[in-house]
Design goal:
Growth Hormone, Chain: A; mainly alpha; 492 residues
């Protein structure tokens, strides 16, 4: 059983109100729904266990992200080891997007219907099993011919099934376990653990894979957090929700049934705009993370530089998300922060499209990637909270899940589109792409198209997105109504 933090409650007056409800006033049945709600309010507590569950979700999220992007920072050496093309290596990342689109709807249903704990445990086991299958590709007696690729793709596919559950959990976790003044921060921490995993992969992959024969070692190293996350999730995620709710919206939860909620989301103009524009940003960032090394190596930038750019992209993204998350928790200016960050992100993507096509501009690229992460990732957790606010009382799993599915669909489209826009060239000494590659690609047109798409998405969101904060309004209304009822009970 989760241990409550001592002395934490919604309001000390609720204790007096609870006594009043329990007294036979003659005006209201003590067993009525209103009185039961007031008794729940009088015992609102925050549980220390919420931080432990948050830690497990962060570890799981990071592990899944590391497995997704593990080969991208060393795509050239991976292609050499597997004796395949760069396109085949890209498919190891692309399989996440392909599988997560249909699985995303099932993940949304599972999260809103079965509960948070089932989502965490199932995703952790899928993540671990997929990771172990990837590692099996390094066992000599299991490998014959192309079996290495088979193990890798099967393992990646199982990890991809886990990804939607992993990505949809943060908003639900924040709503179920955290109070109103900590929701955005908790969502930010859980959400940013995914890009933090990408950050670690960008650092570790080039360090581990210094030559193509080290690719099997990469799979083994990334298996450690996957196994640890599974063990902790199975041990810790034992409850669907805390015994007593952390906020008024949790007490008065009126989440729509899954399919009814989806219909409401599709008819909600503000949510549809957010879903499309957030999906555009997420798709751009997915393609950027996957292709960064290939974009830069054509102009002679080493794997170290591309890894550094990718790492700082995530590191400054975490800083931006933290600062903006804390600010939004205090001010509730969700829309204003997302619009400003979206505009600055578009400008930064334009800067990257220009700088990445120039040689000997490593310091400028490092700065641009840092700013791109700072502004871009600040949007990520706040947009998830905004999706819940503009679609309440639709379940958090459905509102955030549909937005992520939009991002996966657009990410898949963008990755195929950008690859089709590349121009093949014969490898030369000017390129730093893998030494065994006979063909490299010019990404100049693809990066310019990437910048154009990001600008269009930013303009649409800034101009057309407007919404009320429905969950916050419901909490204020519920608190006012409950206070009035308590006053009436006390007077009687």
């Amino acid at each position: 059983m989760a241990e409550a933090e001592p002395g934490i409650s919604q309001d000390p007056e609720h204790n007096a109100a609870d006594d009043a409800v329990l007294l036979p006033t003659g005006e209201e049945d003590p067993n009525s729904e209103r009185c039961q709600t007031l008794r729940k309010l009088s015992h609102i507590r925050l549980y220390k266990k919420r931080w432990l569950i948050l830690l497990v979700v962060c570890l799981l999220n990071s592990s899944n992200a590391m497995l997704w992007i593990s080969f991208a920072p060393v795509a050239d050496l991976t292609a050499s080891y597997l004796k395949c093309s760069l396109d085949t290596v890209n498919y190891l990342s692309l399989v996440y997007l392909v599988i997560s689109i249909p699985i995303g709807f099932l993940a949304s249903w599972l999260l809103d219907t079965l509960g948070l704990n089932y989502a965490i445990i199932i995703s952790s086991w899928l993540n671990m099993v997929g990771c172990l299958l990837r590692s099996a590709s390094a066992i000599p007696f299991l490998n014959t011919g192309k079996s290495t690729l088979v193990y890798l793709f099967i393992g990646q596919s199982i990890c991809a099934v886990a990804q939607p559950l992993v990505l949809f959990v943060p908003a639900k976790l924040a709503a179920v376990w955290f109070p109103e003044h900590q929701r955005a921060t908790a969502n930010m921490i859980a959400s940013m653990s995914n890009p933090f995993g990408i950050f670690l992969a960008n650092i570790l992959s080039p360090v581990i894979v210094t030559q193509d024969t080290k690719v099997p070692l990469l799979n083994g190293v990334y298996g450690i957090p996957a196994v640890l996350a599974c063990i902790l999730a199975t041990a810790v995620a034992t409850e669907k929700a805390p015994l007593t709710p952390p906020s008024l919206s949790a007490v008065n939860s009126t989440s729509e049934p899954f399919f009814a909620g989806l219909k409401k989301l599709i008819r909600n103009k503000a949510y549809v705009i957010l879903m499309i524009c957030f999906g555009t940003g997420l798709g751009i960032f997915t393609a950027f993370s996957t292709f960064l090394e290939q974009i830069l190596c054509f102009k002679g930038y080493s794997n170290f530089i591309s890894g550094l750019c990718g790492a700082l992209f995530i590191l400054f993204g975490a800083i931006g998300a933290l600062l903006c998350g804390l600010y939004v928790d205090r001010t509730k200016k969700f829309t204003e922060v997302v619009k400003i960050c979206f505009a600055l992100t578009a400008f930064t993507v334009i800067g990257f499209a220009v700088a990445s096509n120039l040689k000997n501009m490593a310091p400028l690229l490092v700065v641009i990637c840092s700013l791109l992460g700072f502004f871009g990732f600040a949007i990520y957790p706040i947009a998830m909270e905004l999706a819940v606010e503009c679609s309440y009382p639709v379940g958090e799993g459905s509102s955030t899940g549909l937005a992520f599915i939009s991002g996966q669909v657009q990410g898949l489209i963008f990755m195929v589109l950008f690859q089709s826009l590349t121009k093949p060239y014969s490898a030369s000494q000017l390129s730093s792409c893998g030494t065994k590659q006979t063909e490299i690609y010019d990404w100049s047109i693809a990066t310019l198209v990437m910048a154009g798409i990001c600008c269009i998405g930013a303009c649409i969101f800034i101009i057309f997105f407007h919404t009320d904060y429905k969950r916050l309004k419901a909490e204020v209304a519920a608190e006012t109504e409950d206070q009035k009822h308590e006053d009436q009970l006390v007077q009687t």
